[in-house]
Amino acid sequence: MTDSVRQISENDQLRADIYQLLAALLRRHPSPELLDFLANLEIDANDDNEMTKAWLSLQLAAKQFSTEQLEDEYFTLFLGVGCGEILPYGSWFMTGSLMDKPLALLRQDLMQLGFEREENVKEPEDHVAALCEVMGVLILEAPGYRQLAFYNRHIGTWIERFCHNLANAPSAAFYATVANLATAFFKMEASAFEQLSLDIPVNCPG
Questions:
Q1: d(CA 91, CA 98)
Q2: Any residues with CB less than 8 A from the CB of 2 and at least 6 apart, and which?
Q3: pLDDT tens digit string along 183-198?
Q4: How buried is residue 166: exposed, middle or buried, by Cβ count under 10 Å (0-12/13-18/19+)?
Q5: Is residue 41 in some structural domain?
Q6: Residue 2 clears pLDDT 50, i.e. is over it
Q7: Phi and psi of 7, rounded to 5°?
Q8: pLDDT digits (tens, 9 = 90+) for 14-35
Q9: What range does the domain containing 91 cover?
Q10: Tell me, what CATH number does 168's domain have?
Q11: pLDDT value at position 123?
């Protein structure tokens, strides 16, 4: 999968960084260090687009909430007593069930791509944070057609609904701004992958 001489564009590095940031925010509540990083982002406020607006909202939220507050918010949203307000799993959004066929297909693809599940990770591999982590790696290490295939099979069909549900969840305050950033970002990704699909030859391997 890895090409040691592959040149990484500035845009691809930024995309990979955003995937890893979303993964960190969706895997667990943010640490004080991550909140401080978000609060001190350098953002060009003159760029009047959805991504810039989302970054500014997230930055403001990072300045307003403490780690303790966000630990409670994250628990209510994603864990809960028995069940959180949001189920952050691809299988759930694709089939309405957990641990369903999409998870089995995902595990096959991850194995073929050379990814191994860490022993200390309890969540299924179709957790949205895990999928973002994989995409962050693929952007830096895999050709475009592999990124496209993984995105289309395991993320693209449901991520917009996940972002909408998170943005409108009853307990979402800080995480509503995370959802807005994710919404703007995945709209850009969908557009880029749509263009990529037009550029890839039909007989290109999947």
A1: 6
A2: 141
A3: 999 999 988 888 776 7
A4: buried
A5: no
A6: no
A7: -90, 130
A8: 999 999 999 999 999 999 999 9
A9: 10-27+49-197
A10: 1.10.3480.10
A11: 81
What span, in angstroms and rounded, lies between the C-alpha atoms of 86 and 102?
18
Tokens linked to 29:
């509540």
pTM: 0.89
Query: Cβ-count burial of 196 within 10 angstroms (0-12 exposed, 13-18 middle, 19+ buried)?
Result: middle
Report residue 30 as tokens. 């943010």
135 C-beta neighbours (distance < 10 Å), count: 24
User: Mean pLDDT over residues 133-142, rounded?
Assistant: 93
- Residue 48, pLDDT > 50, answer yes
Residue 64 forms part of a structural domain: yes
How many domains does the chain fold into? 1
> Could you count the other beta carbons within 10 Å of the beta carbon of residue 44?
7
User: How high does pLDDT run on average in the chain?
Assistant: 89
Residue 99 lies in a domain: yes
- The DSSP-derived string for 132-189 is HHHHHHHHHHS-HHHHHHHHHHHTTTTHHHHHHHHHT-TT-SHHHHHHHHHHHHHHHH
Asked whether the beta carbons of 180 and 54 are under 8 A apart, the reply is yes
42 DSSP 8-state letter: -
Four-point Cα dihedral 103, 163, 146, 191, nearest 10: 150
Per the listing, tokens 């994989």 go with 134
Contact criterion met (CB below 8 Å) for 118 and 142: no
